[in-house]
Amino acid sequence: RSDLCxxxxxxxxxxxxxxxxxxxxxxxxxxxxxxLCHWCQRKLGKRYKNSLETVGTPDSGxxxxxKKAIKLPAGGKAVDTALVPGQTPxxxxxxxxxxxxxxxxxxxxxxxxxxxxxxxxxxxxxHEGCSRENLGRIQFSVGYNFQESTLTxxxxxxxxxxxxxxxxxxxxxVKIYLLPDKKHKLETKVKRKNLNPHWNETFLFEGFPYxxxxxxxxxxxxxxxxxxxxxxxxxxxxxxxxxxxxxxMQTFWKDLKPCSxxxxxxxxxxxxxxxxxxxxxxxVNIIKARNLKAMDxxxxxxxxxxxxxxxxxxxxxxxxxxTMKRNLNPIFNExxxxxxxxxxxxxxxxxxxxxxxxxxxxxxxIGKIYLSWKSGPGEVRHWKDMIARPRQPVAQWHQLKA
Length: 402
Known about the structure:
There is one protein chain. The protein is 18% helix and 35% strand. By secondary structure, the chain is α+β, with helices and mostly antiparallel strands. Among the domains are: 136-258, C2 domain (Immunoglobulin-like, Sandwich), CATH 2.60.40.150; 267-400, Immunoglobulin-like. The radius of gyration is 31 Å and the shape is flat. Mean pLDDT is 74; it is low at 1-10, 36-64 and 73-131.
């Protein structure tokens, strides 16, 4: 009968069922693909973020291996220093400015950029409970040529040096001594604006009998070159040569220690930073100091604190505390506000200087602290904490530097 071929009213036809199944399968595939895409984006985003976090300060170009020598008679006393012809210890041509990172072009948020680019976050945490300041480390090689009676010292590179300049960087070079002889020394070139310098320079102590060599101590001092004032010591390394197998060149990594000239015992300063992004301001609270270096004849000091706001190496604004008479552990509790637009934070440095007031002569500098996102590890940690906790005072002790 013809009515047997007609489906009951409201019942779906076979074609309708087939189309519905196809639509259902398509929707399921779309959901799965969207989920996979979202997962891929998360994974790629994580990889991209990690690549940003690993960006560090670019090294300057590796220079050719340079050779400098000291000629010594059989007695082992240095009598002359011979440098490479036409070469001076502080060659201006060697002062290359490091290339600028292109990371700022990839990151829209200045705050997140500073958090990701701040160097040594893992190492900062490793030294969180350590009171000793991290001064970086140096790599060098030592060996002795018995046929030529020559001691060879190669200064290779350094890493994670602290910033000593207003710009948040340093211009490091290395002095090489064979103690106890302090009169004769050799020096590397100056590496301009570089906290991870590569020197790759070779130094020869010629005509030096082996029995005299093993009585000496190899002393390396890393300094920050300053054209207009005294070079700032960064750190030092000493290694007795009788503890080294000199029959072949050996390479060492050594942590730098505070220089023995007393620069490591200038005292500490407790201060807090409070960043307010909506008001475009930073409040610096100078809280107190302890164990300040005595600068006066009476074994004490009259300390006060200067706070400079620097932008692109230029002094913008200065504030200072009152002077505390004859006090090596003063309590200041004074706050200063500085207007800093968010877009200028990356080029901003706050310089804290503890001074000793003198009525009859020039005031003495007890020590300094440079605060920015590209200073030393301790300063960077404080700066990062300030950015990460807006509108909250973040306090931290800092070791005063020369």
